[in-house]
Design goal:
The protein is α/β, with parallel strands linked by helices. It folds into 2 domains: 243 residues, TIM Barrel (Alpha-Beta Barrel); 27 residues. β3, α6 and β4 form a beta-alpha-beta unit. The structure holds 3-methyl-2-oxobutanoic acid. 3-methyl-2-oxobutanoic acid binds next to β6.
Length: 276
């Protein structure tokens, strides 16, 4: 671990929305990863990650669904509570899943209250701009911090039709900028920008005062987020250009399990020291 990273870890004992705002003002980049379970959340928190997102990508990586749409509020609460039990330092944000907030602002508030009460997380995240502003206001009025999410919003995959880069054309880029400003005015503490041109993301990060966290949005934003299972190389099929793999855990686990099977079959495991 670099000296700079150790310094940051020691300085902040609990990351809050206020700490993230100060990081933006200081020009210190924010690190964010997803987690869905106790064991991995414990490791990434100890390593000093600033924000843990209990993302609805759990629908893909934990449950094997093709999209994020099937995961339920109860399932998100289960994942959120598991992560909260592991974490001491990071700010924990839980995604409001598809169908738990689009109906009306009362439903959005009730879903958010359930997440906050039943997981102990610190904030919720929701996808969309102008069309969900009323719900965001109502959630904020209950004292629940909200993180926005613009650009490629996977809960709308059937509207987009593809997972391609968003907002390449002027009209969509202009809407994204005005949505980002609206989310800021409404009171979101941060915004995730997913899979949009780097220049556009950088412009948004300059034009709003709240921290902008990118995934596939280039380096000109205030922080970066990746799906943990992707950056650890557990999933070999998903290889978008923006993904940097830090491990190849698929291969390591495959090899380790092969060795274990072999040790059993050859009667090497357990040996005398591994029994009572
Ligand atoms: O659900 C998720 O993992 C996300 C990230 C991709 C930002 O929303």
């Amino acid at each position: 671990m670099s000296a700079k990273k150790q310094q940051t870890k020691a300085e902040v004992t609990k990351v809050t929305t206020h700490v993230l705002q100060e990081m933006k003002f200081r020009g210190e980049k924010i690190s964010m990863l997803t987690a869905y379970d106790y064991s991995l959340a414990k490791i990434i928190d100890a390593a000093g990650i600033d924000v843990i997102l209990v993302g609805d990508s759990a629908s893909n990586v934990m449950a094997g669904h093709e999209t994020t749409l099937p995961i339920t509020l109860d399932q998100m609460i289960y994942h959120g509570a598991s992560v909260v039990r592991a974490v001491n330092r990071a700010l924990i944000v839980v995604d409001l899943p598809f169908g738990s907030y689009q109906g009306n602002s009362k439903e959005a508030l009730n879903s958010s209250i359930r997440i906050m009460k039943e997981t102990g997380a610190h904030a919720v995240k929701m996808e969309g701009g102008k069309e969900i502003v009323e719900s965001i206001s109502r959630i904020l009025s209950a004292g629940i911090p909200v993180m926005g999410h613009l650009g490629l919003t996977p809960q709308s995959i059937y509207k987009f039709g593809t997972y391609n880069v968003r907002a390449k054309e002027k009209e969509e880029a202009d809407k994204l900028i005005s949505d980002a400003k609206l989310l800021e005015q409404t009171g979101c503490f941060s915004i995730v920008l997913e899979k949009i041109p780097a220049k556009l993301a950088s412009k948004v990060a300059k034009e709003v005062k709240i921290p902008v966290i990118g995934i596939g949005a280039g380096s000109g934003v205030d922080g970066q987020v990746l799906v943990l299972h992707d950056m650890l190389g557990i999933n070999k099929q998903f290889s978008p250009r923006f993904l940097r793999r830090y491990l190849n855990l698929y291969d390591d686990i495959y090899k380790a399990v092969g060795e274990y099977i072999n040790d059993i079959k050859t009667r090497d495991f357990p040996n005398e020291r591994e029994q009572y």
